[in-house]
Task: structure prediction
Amino acid sequence: MLRWFPENISTFGGEIDSVFRFIYYIVGFWFLLTEGAIFYFLLRYRSGPRRAASYIRGERWAELAWILVPAAIVLVLDLGIDAAGARAWARIKEELPADAIQLRVTAKQFNWEITYPGPDGRFDTGDDRTLENELHVPAGRDVVVALTSKDVIHSFFLPNVRLKQDVVPGRTIRAWFNATKPGRYELACAELCGFGHYNMRGFLTVHAPADYENWVREMWPTVAAGADSEG
Amino acid sequence: MHATATPQTAALPQHAEELSFLRSYVFSTDHKVIGKQYLSLGLFMALVGGFTAYLIRWQLAWPETAVPGWDYVEPDFYNVLVTMHGTIMVFFVAMPILLGAFGNFLIPLMVGAPDMAFPRLNMMSFWTIFLASAVLLASFFVPGGAAAAGWTGYAPLSADPLYTGVDWGLTLWILALALEFASFLMGGVNFLTTAINMRAPGMTLLRLPLLVWMQLTAAVLFMLSVGPLIAGAILLLLDRTVGTGFFLPARGGDPLLWQHLFWFFGHPEVYVILLPGLGILLEIFPVFTRKPIFGYRAILYSTLIAGGLSFIVWAHHMFVSGINARLATPFSVTTILISVPFAVIVFAMVATLRGGVARFPTAMLFAIGALATFIVGGVTGIFLGSATVDIFLHDTYFVVAHFHYTLFPSALLGAFAGLYYWYPKMFGRMLNETLGKIHFWVTILSFNAVFLPLFLAGAGGHMRRIYNPLQYDFLKGMQPLHEFVTIAAIVLLLGQLPLVVNFFWSLFAGAKAPENPWQANTLEWTTSSPPPHGNFPTPPRVYRDPYEYSRPGNPRDWMPQTAPLAAVAADPAPS
Result:
């Protein structure tokens, strides 16, 4: 199952994958144990001549221990899974990094509008640029996206970044990521949003640092001369 | 807990006059007839739901090609299909069959009552869901088509016709659900009252068969959770029809409110469907291993705990919905905690199988198949219960595979087990075992061939409810998987033909069923097959637990609940 995961290109994607792997081995063990017991018991105790079933009601503690002790182990493992997950969740979803590139993403049936603040680093100024379905970020930088929707609920999904966040009309929801590997990846809508839902596709382009400066110069040719590439 | 129920059964209805055909088979107040009516409705709706699955699967495997026996599936109709498939299967197949059919048929028989406490209410509950089904099916034919906002009906998509182009269809969808809820509220009241107040003398609460406990828990969960959703449905209806804005931000509303109301109901609803299915397995395992249930009380208390926990886990459907991120971890903890009571129930079932004398008629095969597949659904829930992993897996095929692995074992494999097991009692004929075993093997193999690969698709990030996966480069490699799954799904659907043939052939030509063909203990097997109007010629008196199989000192390996204590006077009974 683990081989099916899309390539991870984000700083926190590895944490999500390792929590998945942690759960995978724990539940895999219990799955094999329980299924094995079922099939072993059924084959071992299938009906035959001169055999009688044993009369065990499982009402005494000594008998119940056979199921309560494993259940107690399940409880302990559950708490371990919770702890592992809670740490990763807090880092990924509960806090936003300081000093990040700020972008606005507006979802609508059936497009993503990505607004860049331009060289002045501020929104709602003359050098803002909005691109449809094209999300450009430099590799290795924290990026915060402010997600809003013009109509219904969409879900901002970057499979390779392991980031998914619903986009809810009437709210601005902030999410962050840090993509480490340059390349062009897909951005998908993961929440049913109407008849064009399946086609609400965009692209994430992760630029190597030098390449990113070239892209900025192309986007803001007049102001780029003296300005930093700070997005 | 040892108080004996009052002997309500003393007042058996004596029906001297012949009832008309209409009163006997259509507007009947007999719980057994009503149970069969629910069964027929559920099986019919399963055909509709199965056909939607066929259209969905064809479109996914061979996108935008004409579906054999149909036409091209357009994107907006695809959304109708996924919406109606979920709605039909959960509300119009699983609930009518598990609660409506088995609950209705079995609860009065198992507690030793002549009928439900409120027979006319019972009849009304069936005709209400009949009307609900008619409204739902009619919504396919109104201008604009049927609801297309997903079975979860997320607002604002569902709240304004502007967003989907569906106008009347979605309004009828709300109406159909409202009627369906009303129907099951009436049913729930009946189930509770009957099982609490109409137990035969000696049928203490801890002598109730576990199936009855499961049905009771399901009824309580449903009644406690459905209120918020009914409120939500009314608000949604107002948004659509009179222009309020409860869920529309432009008019001051909040879309997440709908999700809270929906899932506060939605999660207990999962157990409303799951528990009666588990109850069926719990009746079948002791009979075909000739052993008592291992840990009756452990199972009972675990069920009640799981039912209670199911009210405080709903936000696990909303980890990435935009709720306060600090809510995720507490809901993650409660969600994953539910694995403990279910682990106890599953381990108790496994322990029941140990040391028995196992026989494998079709009913037992389906019960084992249901348990073995349900475990897959259970363990994969842990992944989704972890908020961290859910960031990636939410709204992917991993979720689709997971809930099919929990609901299919209960609502279909469990129901099939129950059907093969109680068909003799329902219809007075035995089902054909050869056809039954063909049905079992085709179903279990093709079911796993459909849904195991979908876990892989989900791990690959494949979103659900995507009309044409070929739109995405990262999904293109999964097309062979889609084709394989679709072929398996067609086999699964065709694999139900042996059941259809068996059902109707046995109705007329099956071997006559004796009173107690499986040598089982519970009360329904102490009366004729099928039982007469009023169920028991003389009111039964209960002396013992429902699972007294292979008790030492007893010459037979079974002992009906009505066997008096004197029958085992010489027995050194472990208390």
Q: What stands out?
A: Residues 224-231 of chain A have pLDDT under 50 and may be disordered. The first helix of chain A runs from residue 13 to 44. The beta strands of chain A are 101-108, 111-116, 129-132, 134-138, 143-149, 154-158, 163-167, 173-177, 183-189, 202-207. Chain A touches chain B through 90 residues (CB under 8 Å).
